[in-house]
Amino acid sequence: MTGRWRTSAFVLIGAAVLVVIAGVRVAPERTWAALLLGSLYLLFVALAGALIISIHYLAGAGWWVVLRRVPEAMMAALPAGAVALLLTIVLGGRALYPWAREGTTYLNTPAVFARMAAVLILWIALAYAIRRSSLRQDDDATPAAAAADHRRLVIYSALFTVTFGLSFSIASVDWIMSLEPRWSSTIFAVYVFAGLLVSGIAALTLIVILLRESGPLREVVSESHLHDLGKLLFAFSTFWAYIWVSQYLLIWYGNLPDEIPYYARRTGAGWLGWFLLNPAINWAIPFLTLLARAPKRSPRILGAVCVLILGGHYLDLYLLIAPDTVSRPAIGLLEVLVPVGYASLFALIAQRALARAPLVPRHDPYLDESLHHHL
Fold first, then answer.
1. What stretch of H or E contains 141?
2. 137 and 150 Cβ atoms separated by less than 8 Å
């Protein structure tokens, strides 16, 4: 990022802060809902970076090594996302969550905050361990030392994946599903996870394309790398759609009084258009666009799909949060500047992380395979 872009990012963040301050006074429920949405999206994209790294290490994948610094830069935003979410729930919890006003055996303020602190600390600590070992591998003097760091990274990835699988299920209930504590879904955590993963892959792909087109990764990222990223995007957008349909159909044909109000609200007046737009943006258009081989290898088409999916999953998260906090959808300065402010914050953090290490990792055992990756 040039100095001009960094200045613009700070200006946008400042504008978002001013709008939030005014919004807390004028429309607190709408403002806290926007802040919850923005902080969760920032945290989820950062968390997806750590998860993508862990999955590839556990799979023994070699093709992705030249891209590794990008998900590392994404997960550098984990502390910022954690702080933003913590402040939102601490300061705005009573405006968002019924349990913050009433309290139950499981959902009460001290218990939720204790679980939240434990989950966030575990995620940040393991992400830090992965990043530290990755940077240390750059300085290894011998192949044996590099291999030892690689094994250490596999161990940290396994720990992160197991921890994530258990803790994210708890977190998705505490932070999102408890907005409507009388409603429940047994696959809700899987649904939120699917959105997290596909938006993370879209962010990774978009950053890789930008770095390739602007020069830093032009000589190392080939069309084959883009093709593989496009296949991941194609596959996991379909996985998200499968979970979306599964959850909706199970509740629709079950027709139980405790479950149907959740979807009745989201398909009622004012919300139905957004509800129908959600699967169109997040699955139908990406599926039809990326079905053939050529679009997956085209930076322009693949980048456009990534932008669409990133916006689509912001809408998806909006539909998980807003109908339980506001009566009708609204689009104004608050809904525009809050996500733009968080996106600017993410760009500043990711750019700083990318600048602090070689863009192509050194001494990785699979580096040569990745540099000569062809399909």
1. none
2. yes
Residue labelled with tokens 């891209």? 67
CA distance to 68, 129, 177, 194, 220, per residue, from 208 (Å) = 10, 23, 33, 21, 11
Within 8 A by CB and 6+ apart from 337, the residues are: 12, 15, 16, 19
Give residue 3's pLDDT.
Answer: 79
For 291-316, letters b (16+ CB in 10 Å) and e give eeeebbbbbebbbbbbebbbebbbbb
In angstroms, the CA 353 to CA 95 distance is 35
Taking 3-state DSSP, the helix, strand and coil percentages for the chain, each rounded to the nearest 5, stand at 80, 0, 20
What's the average model confidence in pLDDT over 120-135? 96
Give pLDDT, residue 193: 97
Between 374 and 206, the higher pLDDT residue: 206
Strand (E) or helix (H) holding 120: helix 109-138
Q: Give the DSSP H/E element, type plus range, for residue 336.
A: helix 333-355
The rounded mean pLDDT for the chain is: 93
* Cβ 100 vs Cβ 109: under 8 Å: yes
Give the separation between CA 161 and CA 156, rounded to whole angstroms: 9
Check pLDDT > 90 for residue 374: no
pTM of the entire predicted model:
0.94
Quote the pLDDT of residue 104: 76
Residue 375 has pLDDT above 70, yes or no: no
